[in-house]
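Sat 14:20. Reprocessing the chain from the morning session after the first attempt stalled halfway. Input below, unchanged.
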Amino acid sequence: MELDVFDIQRNKVGEVSLPDGFFPEDWKPWLVQEVIKELAQGNRSGTRKAKSRGEVSGGGKKPWKQKGTGRARQGSNTSPVWARGGTAHGPKPKEYSAHVSKKKKIAALRQILGYKYREGQLFVLDPPVLPEPKTRLFAKNFASFLSPYRTALFFVDKQEDTFFRVTRNLPWTKTLAIEGLNVYDLAKHDVVVFAKKTFEELLGKHRWTESSTKS
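Finished this time. Tokens:
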């Protein structure tokens, strides 16, 4: 299997060979959804906290005597029914993170990359540079390159400081190094663009064949 390589004007300048089974033939949206849900769950901070009646200041002395005042009996001013009292059954710190196995993550990555490839939303770019490192020029060139799609996710070498600076102020783009490859961002953006060097690094970094994901 071959994947076309384009320049910034969307002219074909070469091809990249893909290993057998790189893109799965069957589409499993439930797997992608499941991994995204588990990853999003792990991003929850779980730090909400409300003090119970035993944790607020005050208490110790009975507000008034049990009988003879005509008022309802009260044992402590830390009760939830009092102003500045404790909270009954309030939120407590909780750990939300869920473990997602490496094999499951790789399977979900292959699924979403395969979907992008079949839909014509996966591109390899060489070279990912402009004559001038200007955000305005980048937006002008890639607006036509990515048409009719609206958002783009770029993967470039982490040494490409210029590319990161040029794209960081564009709300419709996000630029990551290959170490940041994740299912959530792949699914969120319309188009995925890899620099050729980064895509070749991806091919050598992960086990993508069908046999390896089933083992």
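The mean pLDDT is 87.
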